[in-house]
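To illustrate the input format used throughout this study, we show a single complete record. The first block contains the structure-token representation of the backbone; no residue identities are included at this stage. The design step must infer an amino acid for every position from geometry alone.
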């Protein structure tokens, strides 16, 4: 029985590592009104289709709205709340976005 304890402890540690990897802001996100954005590392495709770089951290992303889009020059901040929910703040407003599957 003493051999089982270290094995189970190692197994639990590996399970936590796997779930932590999945906990990142990267992916596709949908707003309640149908807008979509996609984050992959420091790159984002904005809801208006611009592919630009932003400030990336595992649970946070920020970018400046590029020229040619509504509210150009404004800062947009996104914070991962849980695996499927993100808070997007732009200007004086905030919205809750959900992870979504975007297919062409």
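Output of the design step:
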């Amino acid at each position: 029985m003493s051999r089982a304890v270290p094995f189970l402890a190692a197994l639990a540690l590996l399970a936590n590592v796997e779930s932590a990897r999945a906990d990142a802001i990267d992916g596709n996100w949908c707003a309640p009104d149908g807008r979509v954005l996609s984050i992959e590392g420091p790159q984002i495709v904005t809801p208006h289709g611009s592919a630009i770089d932003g400030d990336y951290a595992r649970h946070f992303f920020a970018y400046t709205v590029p020229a040619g889009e509504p509210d150009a020059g404004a800062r947009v901040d996104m914070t991962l709340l849980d695996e499927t929910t993100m808070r997007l703040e732009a200007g004086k407003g905030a919205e809750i976005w959900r992870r979504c599957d975007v297919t062409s």
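Structural context for interpreting the output: DSSP finds one helix and nine strands in the chain. The first helix runs from residue 4 to 22.
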